[in-house]
Design brief:
- With about 500 residues, the protein is mostly helical.
- It has helices spanning about 15-30, 40, 90-105, 105-110, 125-140, 180-195, 205-220, 230-235, 250-265, 270-280, 290-300, 315-335, 360-380, 385-400, 420-425, 475-495; strands at about 1-5, 5, 55-60, 70-75, 85-90, 150-155, 170-175.
- Helix 9 (about 250-265) runs antiparallel to helix 10.
- It is globular.
- The structure holds ligand 9MR.
- Ligand 9MR binds near residues 84, 244, 246 and 476.
Length: about 500
């Protein structure tokens, strides 16, 4: 493309989103803890194993009779959360929950998608192999005594920008929380259904996951208001913990998602009752702290499956589904109305408030995923329009925006080079690991005082491709989940 003296080269092709989607999934492989990242799969970004997490301390704030402060447990595998080296249940469960939602919508697409990861030669789809690496870790975060789930596995403070195998800080599991336990319950119930047909590679996992989900849900029912709050815990327990909080004091939505998944997995009336009790008043797009949407998607995809719906539940299911569909469609209509006076022809990015921490995933992409799913599941004749809008929002992420950045590493003519990502920063390779979506423009510029340089005060230009910019230039497993799902849906449905 030439305009005046400026030239930009780009490739035109049929499978662009396919490649993007694959690389977006492959980032999880690079984020794996506890195993070497081999050259055969990682090319020049290979590295030795780090953070085995086979000796993790019970933090004093998590101590009780059976597990005392300082006791050691083993909690290996799983992914680094983001630019940091910690592992957080809330965000892990949300990430897998969203990706497995995508999987359930287009299973044939994912069943043949090969990712070049160590498990590529087994009989399970690669996407599910990658998710299992983290699910396996999550199982170890449940206290087998009471079913409660530790909120996170973490160092007291964020590590410096050093290679993972050079890290020396001790690692702890911290207090159990209602949010983590419910997200875990939802995720495990979901996994128990999906991995049932993959006993070959994962014998007993499905059964184990369902058991874990049921046990976790019981704990949450007994502890419906156990919130994880660092500012409350830190004065009482040492060492202080200052890493990511993922605090959430509104857990009705977590109860809803868990009840939907447990109903889908068991068909027990008790969970259907809870679905009705915790049902939302309106649809809200998904994010790590607001998971109603994952419940809605689960219910609409699974509850009416004719093969295993008890006849006596049918009427109530249909009523609930009708309400959820109305909510979803009303959301889609509101979002689509924003396109008319938009600068970039998108439903995203027309007000300052759209540009928050993690907005490219949480606002732009998740809005499109929700609208697309509405079109697909509600059959209101608007699917083609919704598809078009989703492509436009994806265009926004990939470069048709106020800064001209393609916000995915390794793609496009101008893309992030200095992401706030310890793995990418601590290797000797100039290019960051490819396939990561950055948080994106963030009007609050919370990291300015920490050395992030911004060239503009405008919201949609508040993006800084500098290492210290944790508020606009970090990457995270939950944000990549959005990229994975939207690129998959567009690649599969866009044809
Ligand atoms: O994604 C999280 C965002 O919604 C919060 O506003 C922000 C500040 O608390 O934290 C983000 O999550 C970070 C987590 O706490 C630690 N790992 C890096 C995550 C991405 O920035």
């Amino acid at each position: 493309l030439e305009i005046g003296n400026e030239t930009v080269n780009f490739e035109v092709g049929d499978n662009q989103l396919n490649t993007l989607g694959k690389d977006a999934i492959r980032t999880y492989y690079y984020q794996r803890t506890g195993m070497p990242i081999d050259e055969a799969y990682a090319g020049k970004w290979h590295r030795p194993a780090a953070h085995p997490d086979t000796a993790v301390f019970i933090h004093p704030n998590a101590a009780h009779q059976s597990r005392k402060a300082g006791d050691i447990i083993s909690s290996p595998a799983g992914w680094y959360d983001a630019g940091d080296y910690n592992k957080y249940i809330v965000n892990s469960a949300y990430t897998i929950g969203l990706i497995l939602t995508g999987y359930q919508l287009i299973p044939q697409y994912y069943d043949t998608l090969t990712l070049n990861i160590p498990e590529s030669h087994n009989t399970t789809p690669d996407l599910l192999d990658e998710m299992h690496y983290n699910l396996r870790w999550m199982l170890t975060m449940q206290d087998p005594q009471d079913g409660g789930v530790y909120h996170k596995l973490t160092t007291p403070h964020f590590e410096g920008f050093i290679a993972p195998d050079k890290c020396k800080q001790p690692r702890y599991v911290v207090a159990k929380s209602t949010a983590a336990t419910l997200d875990f319950a939802a995720n495990m119930a979901q996994a128990s259904r999906i991995y049932q047909t993959h006993q070959n590679d994962y014998p007993d996992f499905s059964e184990q996951a369902l058991k874990a989900a049921l046990h976790a849900y019981e704990w949450a029912k007994l502890h419906p208001e156990t919130y994880y709050d660092q500012s409350e815990l830190n004065p009482k327990y040492k060492p202080e913990i200052t890493t990511g909080e993922y605090g959430d004091k509104k857990v009705r939505d977590e109860f809803f998602w868990a009840a939907c998944e447990l109903y889908a997995a068991t068909r027990h009336e008790r969970y259907l009752k809870d679905v009705a009790t915790y049902m939302p008043q309106h649809f809200a797009k998904p994010s790590w702290g607001m998971v109603d949407a994952l419940g809605t998607f689960c219910f609409l995809i699974n509850a009416l499956q004719p093969d295993n719906t008890p006849e006596e539940h049918r009427q109530q299911i249909e009523q609930i589904a009708q309400t959820l569909r109305t909510q979803l469609l009303s959301y889609a209509t509101t979002e689509m109305a924003k396109i008319e006076d938009s600068s970039f022809g998108t439903s995203f990015g027309n007000v300052e408030n759209d540009f928050q921490w993690g907005c490219l995933a949480d606002n732009c992409i998740n809005q499109s995923i929700s609208v697309l799913i509405a079109g697909r599941l509600c059959d209101n004749g608007a699917f083609e329009d919704y598809l078009q809008n989703a492509f436009h929002n994806m265009d926004y992420v990939l470069g048709r925006n106020a800064t001209g950045y393609c916000y995915v590493t390794g793609f496009g003519t101008k893309s992030p080079m200095n992401i706030h990502h310890r793995l990418s920063a601590a290797d000797d390779i100039i290019e960051p690991i490819p396939g990561f979506l950055v948080g994106g423009p963030n009007a609050k510029q919370e990291d300015k005082k920490d050395g992030a340089l911004y060239n503009s005060k405008f919201a949609d230009e508040s993006y800084s491709d500098t290492l210290p910019s944790f508020a606009s230039n970090e990457i995270a497993i939950n944000w990549n989940a959005s990229l994975v799902v939207l690129s998959g849906l567009l690649d599969a449905w866009g044809k």
